[in-house]
Write a structure and sequence with these properties.
4-stranded parallel sheet; disordered C terminus; Rossmann fold; 4 strands; globular; alpha/beta; single chain; 190 residues
Length: 190
């Protein structure tokens, strides 16, 4: 029995490797990208800007690189980027992200976090201090940022709902996603 959702034309197009990807799916929505000024974060910022998102981009210390990214992305994609400086472990910095998103006056639709520090400590440098520093910057800060963002999305009429997807196998990203999903659930239940 064929499903009521079966579309023979779409199935044929997929068989022929013809895909239709919607464009500008994030137009009119705000995305926060912590650690968005370099590497994968910068590439993600470019993709989000291409999709029409309003962006709040965070960087830890390299303002020059963040400003260069902002100039390049704004001129290429005709958008505006708000920059936030500091480490997301800091409560004040995490609050600055939400304040910047609220100033944009477009619904907050999601967050991407790129902590930047290597998650693994080189064996020759392995000690309590280096392990705790890695844990704080790669796990504690991102999870707290995701929790607060998830709560803000659901607790304010200003913010829109968002879909949270999680990877298939355990990872720090999965933990952050689950933390955000838990915050969303608790806020919705309240």
């Amino acid at each position: 029995m064929t499903s009521q959702y079966w579309d023979a034309g779409q199935a044929h197009a997929y068989h022929e490797f013809q895909y239709h990807f919607p464009e500008k799916t994030l137009a009119g929505k705000t995305i926060v990208v912590a650690g968005g000024s370099g590497g994968l974060g910068a590439a993600t910022v470019a993709l989000l800007a291409r999709e029409g998102a309003h962006l709040v981009v965070g960087y830890r210390a390299n303002r020059e690189r963040a400003e260069a990214l902002r100039r390049a992305i704004e001129s290429t994609y005709d958008c505006r980027i708000s920059l936030v400086a500091g480490d997301i472990v800091s409560v004040e910095v995490r609050e600055a992200y939400l304040a910047a998103a609220q100033k944009i006056a477009a619904p907050l639709a999601g967050i991407a976090i790129f902590p930047g520090d290597p998650a693994r400590v080189a064996f020759e440098n392995l000690n309590s201090e280096t392990l705790l520093a890695s844990l704080e910057s790669n796990y504690v800060g991102p999870i707290l940022r995701a929790k607060e963002c998830g709560a803000a999305i659901d607790s304010s009429a200003f913010f829109s709902s968002a879909t949270i997807t999680t990877p298939a196998r355990p990872s720090p990203l999965l933990a952050v996603s689950r933390c955000a999903a838990t915050a969303r659930s608790r806020a919705a239940a309240a």
